[in-house]
C-alpha cells in the first residue's frame, strides 16, 4: 500500500489523501509539541486556492501549480504571478473560532486557509509522529509540505494523521483548508439554534511516540458488589506477545498481561479499598499503563451508573440530577467557542454555584478540558452528538458521519467518570426513517460502551382527549435507558400559568429526565411577571415549571435551558436578542438573572435529600 501510495503521490498531490483517523488515541496527558498560537490565514470565499478556473480541484492534479494555496508558494522570480501570500495575510489564534477574531468574519460561512510553519519535534529515527487536531469546524482538508494528508468532517471531535517520515527538520508547512459551510446532509444539518463558529477551534499538537505505543485503554468498575475493575489496553504497532503493565499505585494494583496479535490485552482485578467517585467525593486515582519504551499516565474515577425501574442509581444509590444545560461558548471576554481550560472551568464553576451536580453538554461533544474538569470538580455529565432537529435520515453517508462522531466522542471520553449519559439526538421528528437511523446508532453506542446510560432529548405531545395531559411516547424510548424530553410550557407553549394544570403521562418503567425547559429574559430588564423578556417573567416560569416537574412520576433530574445566553443567528430581535438566545439563567457576561436564584434554591432543597448531601431519591416528590 505504501509503495502504491508513493507512486500515486508522484502523480497527484492528493492521491493518497485518506480520511483522517478518528480511531481513539489518548493524547491529552502526553507531552506534546503544541502548534497552538498564531497561524497565518487567508479568507477564501470562492475557494480560489482550491479550484482552478474550470472548477477542478488542484489537489487532484499531478503537479499542483503554485496557485494552489496548499503549496504555500512564494514568488521565485520578479515576474512570477502568485496571487496569495500567507506571510502577508491576517493572523488567527489557534485554538479559536474565526468569527470572534475579526469583525469581517462574524457571519462568515465558507473556506479559510490556515498555515503554520514549524520545525520537527526532536525524535529518534525509530519514533512515530502524529499531528493531532482537537477539533476543526466543520470540514478540514489537511496538507503537509504541499502534499495532502487527508480530510476530516465533523466539527467537534478529535482526529489525527500519522506523519512519520514526512517531516523536514525545519520549516515544515502545515496548511488546512477549513470550511464551515452548512449542508443539508451534514451532522448537524442546515438548521440549528447555535452559532456556526468556524475554524481550528481546539488545540493542534505533534505527538511523538515509539514504534509500539499505548494507543488507548479502558478502565471501568464492572461490579459494584465485588469492587471489580475491568480494563483493556490497545498497543499500536504491536505484533502480539508484548507485555503491558497496568498500575493504580495508590491502590497497590500492578497487573501484567500479554497482548494478542491485534495489540489488545484485557485485565480484571479487585480494588476492595477503593473510594468510589461521586459528585460529593470526586476521588481520582492515578493509572499508569506501561509497555517497553512507552508509558501512558492518566487519572480515573471508579463508579457505576445504572437505571433500575424508574430509579437512577449512582454507585447503587438513588441520585437526582440537579443539572444545567451548557453550550461550549464563553462570551465574558469577547466570546466565541471556549478556548482553554480556564474558560471551561469557569462554566463548570457557575454550574457549581447553582448547586448543580450535573451538566448537559449540549448539543455536540465539548472540548476535553471540560469533561476532565468535571471529573475533578465532581460534576456528572451528559455528552451528545449533533444529531439535531432534522437530519438526512435516509442518507447512508449522513448516518456514517453521525456514527463516526459518536465513536470519536465515546473513544475520547470513555474513561471519564463524570460522563454518565451518551445522548444520540435532540428533538428529532418521529418517522420510520428516523427510527431506523437512531436505532442503528443505539446499537452502535451499546457496542462501543455498555457501561453508561443512553438517552436522547425527545419531545412531548398532548392527549387528544385531554389537552391538559402531556404525553412522552416515542418508539425510540423503548431502546434508551433514560427517558429524556424537552418541553417549553410557558414559552413556546402557552403562558407559565399553564404549568399549574398540566399532568404528565410517561408510560415507561424508566427514569425520567427533563433535558430542557426555559424562557428568554434580557438581564437587567425588569417588569411584572406577565411581561415577556423580563427577568420576572423568566423567574415566574421557573417557579411554576419546577413545581410541575416535581409531580412527574419517575422524575430523576432536570437540566434547564440554559446556563448562559449564547449566540444564535435565529435570534434577531433588536434591543432584546441582538443575536443571542436569551434563555440563560445568566447573561453572556456571567451576570446572574433572577431565575438563577430560583433554580439554586430548588437545588439546595433537593441536595438535602439522600446520601452524602449529593444523592437524592429519584421521583421523591417536591423538595422540603
Ligand atoms: C430547543 C433546542 C435548543 C434551543 C431551544 C430554544 O428545544 O433543543 O437547542 O436553543 O429549544 O431556545 O428554542
Automatic annotation (TrEMBL):
Q: Which Enzyme Commission number(s) are listed?
A: 3.2.1.31
- One Gene Ontology biological process: carbohydrate metabolic process
| Limits of the Glycoside hydrolase family 2 immunoglobulin-like beta-sandwich domain | 261-303
What InterPro entries does the annotation carry? Answer: Beta-gal/glucu_dom_sf, Galactose-bd-like_sf, GH, Glyco_hydro_2, Glyco_hydro_2_cat, Glyco_hydro_2_N, Ig-like_fold, Ig-like_GH2
Q: Which residues form the signal peptide?
A: 1-17
Instruction: Give start and end of each Glycosyl hydrolases family 2 sugar binding domain.
Output: 73-210
Q: Which Pfam families match?
A: Glyco_hydro_2, Glyco_hydro_2_C, Glyco_hydro_2_N
What are the protein's GO molecular function terms?
beta-glucuronidase activity; carbohydrate binding
Q: Where is the Glycoside hydrolase family 2 catalytic domain?
A: 307-567
* Alphabetical keyword list: Glycosidase, Hydrolase, Signal
Family the entry assigns: Belongs to the glycosyl hydrolase 2 family.
Q: What is this protein called?
A: Beta-glucuronidase
Lineage start: Bacteria, Pseudomonadati, Pseudomonadota, Gammaproteobacteria, Lysobacterales
Amino acid at each position: 500500500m505504501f509503495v502504491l501510495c508513493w507512486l500515486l503521490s508522484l502523480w497527484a498531490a492528493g492521491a493518497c489523501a485518506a480520511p483522517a483517523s478518528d480511531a481513539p488515541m489518548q493524547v491529552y496527558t502526553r507531552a506534546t509539541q503544541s502548534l497552538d498560537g498564531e497561524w497565518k490565514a487567508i479568507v477564501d470565499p470562492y475557494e480560489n486556492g482550491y479550484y482552478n478556473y474550470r472548477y477542478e480541484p488542484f489537489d487532484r492534479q499531478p503537479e499542483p501549480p503554485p496557485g494552489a494555496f496548499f503549496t504555500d508558494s512564494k514568488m521565485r522570480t520578479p515576474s512570477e504571478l502568485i496571487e496569495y501570500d500567507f506571510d502577508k495575510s491576517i493572523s488567527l489564534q489557534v485554538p479559536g473560532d474565526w468569527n470572534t477574531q475579526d469583525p469581517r468574519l462574524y457571519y462568515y460561512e465558507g473556506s479559510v486557509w490556515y498555515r503554520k510553519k514549524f520545525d520537527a519535534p526532536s525524535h529518534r529515527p525509530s519514533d512515530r509522529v502524529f499531528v493531532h487536531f482537537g477539533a476543526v469546524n466543520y470540514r478540514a482538508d489537511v496538507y503537509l509540505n504541499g502534499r495532502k494528508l487527508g480530510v476530516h468532517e465533523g466539527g467537534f471531535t478529535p482526529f489525527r494523521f500519522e506523519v512519520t517520515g514526512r517531516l523536514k527538520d525545519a520549516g515544515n508547512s502545515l496548511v488546512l483548508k477549513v470550511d464551515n459551510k452548512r449542508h443539508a446532509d451534514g451532522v448537524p444539518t442546515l438548521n440549528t439554534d447555535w452559532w456556526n463558529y468556524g475554524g481550528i477551534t481546539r488545540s493542534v499538537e505533534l505527538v511523538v511516540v515509539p514504534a509500539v505505543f499505548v494507543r488507548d485503554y479502558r478502565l471501568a468498575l464492572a461490579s459494584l458488589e465485588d469492587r471489580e475493575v475491568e480494563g483493556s489496553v490497545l498497543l499500536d504497532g504491536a505484533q502480539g506477545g508484548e507485555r503491558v503493565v497496568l498500575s493504580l499505585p495508590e491502590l497497590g494494583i500492578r497487573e501484567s498481561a500479554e497482548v494478542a496479535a491485534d495489540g489488545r490485552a484485557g485485565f480484571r482485578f479487585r480494588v476492595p479499598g477503593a473510594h468510589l467517585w461521586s459528585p460529593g467525593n470526586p476521588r481520582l486515582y492515578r493509572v499508569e499503563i506501561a509497555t517497553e519504551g512507552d508509558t501512558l499516565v492518566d487519572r480515573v474515577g471508579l463508579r457505576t451508573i445504572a437505571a433500575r425501574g424508574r430509579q437512577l442509581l449512582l454507585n447503587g444509590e438513588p441520585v437526582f440530577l440537579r443539572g444545567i444545560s451548557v453550550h461550549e461558548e464563553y462570551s465574558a471576554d469577547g466570546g466565541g467557542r471556549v478556548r482553554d481550560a480556564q474558560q471551561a472551568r469557569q462554566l463548570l464553576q457557575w454550574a457549581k454555584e447553582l448547586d448543580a451536580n450535573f451538566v448537559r453538554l449540549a448539543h455536540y461533544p465539548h472540548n476535553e478540558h471540560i469533561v476532565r474538569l468535571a471529573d475533578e470538580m465532581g460534576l456528572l455529565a451528559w455528552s451528545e452528538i449533533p444529531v439535531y432537529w432534522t437530519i438526512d435520515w435516509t442518507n447512508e453517508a449522513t448516518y456514517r458521519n453521525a456514527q463516526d462522531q459518536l465513536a470519536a466522542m465515546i473513544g475520547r471520553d470513555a474513561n471519564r467518570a463524570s460522563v454518565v449519559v451518551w445522548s444520540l439526538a435532540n428533538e428529532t421528528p418521529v418517522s420510520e426513517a428516523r427510527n431506523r437511523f437512531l436505532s442503528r446508532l443505539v446499537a452502535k453506542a451499546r457496542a462501543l460502551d455498555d457501561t453508561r446510560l443512553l438517552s436522547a432529548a425527545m419531545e412531548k405531545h398532548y392527549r387528544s382527549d385531554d389537552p391538559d395531559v402531556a404525553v412522552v411516547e416515542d418508539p425510540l424510548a423503548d431502546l434508551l435507558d433514560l427517558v429524556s424530553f424537552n418541553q417549553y410550557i410557558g414559552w413556546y407553549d402557552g403562558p407559565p400559568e399553564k404549568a399549574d394544570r398540566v399532568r404528565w403521562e410517561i408510560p415507561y418503567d424508566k427514569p425520567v429526565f427533563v433535558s430542557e425547559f426555559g424562557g428568554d429574559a434580557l438581564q437587567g430588564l425588569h417588569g411584572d411577571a406577565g411581561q415577556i423578556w423580563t427577568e420576572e417573567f423568566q423567574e415566574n416560569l421557573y417557579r411554576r415549571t419546577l413545581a410541575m416537574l416535581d409531580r412527574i412520576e419517575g422524575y430523576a433530574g432536570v437540566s434547564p435551558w440554559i446556563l448562559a445566553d449564547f449566540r444564535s443567528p435565529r435570534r434577531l430581535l433588536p434591543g432584546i436578542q441582538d443575536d443571542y438566545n436569551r434563555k440563560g439563567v445568566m447573561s453572556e457576561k456571567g451576570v446572574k438573572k433572577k431565575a438563577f436564584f430560583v433554580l439554586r434554591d430548588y437545588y439546595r432543597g433537593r441536595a438535602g435529600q439522600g446520601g452524602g448531601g449529593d444523592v437524592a431519591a429519584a421521583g421523591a416528590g417536591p423538595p422540603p
